[in-house]
Amino acid sequence: MKTSSFLLMACALAPFVTKALAAPLFDPTGFELRETQPFSISVQPATALSSAQTVSYRLMPGGIMLSSEARKPTSYHARQPRTELSESRIWRVQDAPAFLSATLHIDRFPKSGQIVLAELGPDNDSAPLLRLMVDGDRIVLRGMIDDAPASGVTVGTVDATHQVHIALQTQADGQLTTLVNGTQSQLHLTRQALSIPVVFRTGAHAVEDIGTTPDTVTVTLTGLSASHGTSGSGLRT
Fold first, then answer.
1. Spatial strand order in the sheet of 63-69
2. With contact defined as beta carbons under 8 Å apart, do 45 and 29 qualify?
3. What is the spatial distance between Cα 184 and Cα 177, in angstroms, rounded to a whole number?
4. N or C: which end of the chain has fewer CB within 10 A?
5. What is the pLDDT of residue 22?
6. What percent of the chain has pLDDT over 90?
7. Percentage of the chain surpassing pLDDT 70?
8. What would the pLDDT profile of 41-72 be if each residue is shown by its tens digit?
9. Whether the model pTM is above 0.70
10. Residue 139 and residue 133: Cα distance in Å, rounded?
11. Which of 67, 71, 70 is nearest to 84 (CA)?
């Protein structure tokens, strides 16, 4: 009996779907808190975070609340403010499979601009390989994706609860599987993207036309994990 390609794909995706739909687990192991201000970046290992309340973060049972300014820098050389949990290990897609997930609630939307839910990109100010953004009620994936329009690909929706569950799986050949609020998508990264050193990050971050008046974006992370295969050379731990 000949096995259909659809059945083969379904069998291959079954472990990913099972893992992606599991109850969210907030595991900041291997992550660090990065607070980017217009002219400085503060980095603190997630294991060193205290229970004291601060302007940018507050630990909660099973998660963390993150806040950041949501306004455009007025200086040409300034960075866009953001508060996020970012992997401390740099890796490349081509090295080994990776499974990345985040569950967050959007507590405060900025008055203008768009919220960045998660990114996969270089550990600097360079453009990300992938960026998941909220555009109205759509969740859009932009970046280095084969045959994708500049406006991005819709990979899910966000409803009135403002809760978002994200699961991403990358393969060494560039195959990308996403499951965002129950919507599954199959995409492929460009060849160039496979060899770029990257980290996975998620938190409070607003971009696009956000203006220069004081504003804030706040999210609560209740799920976070990153796991990587053992093949490949690895770049940093």
1. 57-60, 63-69, 216-228, 98-108, 163-170, 175-180, 183-188
2. no
3. 7
4. N
5. 67
6. 66
7. 86
8. 999 998 888 877 788 999 998 999 999 999 88
9. yes
10. 6
11. 67
Give residues with Cβ within 8 angstroms of 228, minimum separation 6.
89, 91, 95, 96, 97, 98, 99
Q: Is 173 left (phi over 0), alpha (psi -120 to 50) or beta?
A: alpha
Dist. CA 150–CA 51, nearest whole Å:
41
Which of 69-73, 130-134, 165-169, 220-224 has the least mean pLDDT?
A: 69-73
Residue 40 tokens, joined? 């400085």
Least confident of 24-28, 66-70, 82-86, 115-119: 24-28
Residue with token string 């507050």: 58
